[in-house]
Amino acid sequence: MNSNIIVMIKKELHRFFRDPRVVLTTILLPGLLIYVIYTFLGGAMSNMLKIDETYEYQIAVVQPSEAFSTFIESQSTLNYSLETIPPDQIESYRTRITDEEADLLVVFPAGFDQDVALLERSPVVPNVEVYYNSASMASGQAYSVVLSVLESMKTSSFDINRGVDSADLAPSKGAFLQYLSSMLPMLILIFIFTGCMAVATESIAGEKERGTIATLLVTPTKRGEVAVAKILSLGIIALCSGASSFLGLYLSLPKMFGMLEDESVSFASLFGIVEYVYLALVVLATSLLLVALISIISSFSKSVKEATTAVTPFMLVVALVGLSAMFTGGAQSDVVFYLIPLYNSVQALAGIFAGESSAVNILICTVSNLVYTMVAAYVLARLFNSEKVMFSK
Asked: Distance of CA 108 to CAs 42, 93, 303, Å?
């Protein structure tokens, strides 16, 4: 790399990191705010979604088992209502569970108690089917309790949900995962944008306001090198800001998933090392792109105040793009959507939080954002060569 570029990068980084206030607001604050807000949301939602102690669980049983009734009465602390329904009402009751009008359906085979008692002399292994809705906290809780009761009954062997394609009757994904995939992408984009805005406006418009940009541009150093140095140094700072945001996510997500401990969907089952790598790639690539775009806007401004004012409408655009995750019903599957700058980041984040992430889509999103960043760096270099832009009064 050109020695002039290296010298200017060191100068820019030294100027940035020696100011504690800028370091606090740009690097430490985004991650801290994400951690505090998401942890608070996780705790608040856990309290909001707790089931009332007086709630009566609606459980239907087909061809009820006397052993099951005895076990659930002796072992369960649920306030439940057991309703016996005929086999021809199974489908209608499954629909009620999907619509969250009922909590659980347990289907015993005919003569279950006798088959279990005579299992040693019979080749037929009884099978019990249990249907629930993971989008309902009450249904998930009832499923967990009944499953535990059935396991306790297994003094003699029988199967649970053998041959059942899906015992979960939720229409798509759980309500909590739906919340994550619709709200978190917007919040992440806003936090990243705020950190990048503080860096880029101060670095370019701030130097124009102080008059130091003129001194820098009249040196023998090529203006294109100055622009590249600015982008690289700001990119490093943006990566630090993005890393801070990622760290905040890393620390707060277990708390956000704390309410799912009693459900079939858990934090550990959805967020492993692969998902964290996906998050890191998307957050860091998005940070680079945003800092490059804000730098271009800042280069047309004469002061930090003017640059901040000019960037504000862009922030509204970023917020609206982030909100788009609420209206798409989950991450888009078509790769074309992962080529659209910023929107691709929203879709990638939505897919990660919904547990539907695709390695191909994440890669396309990351690479395309890096390509857009290089294009923006080229545009900024051209602007640095413009006397009208850089020395406007």
From this structure: 38, 15, 75
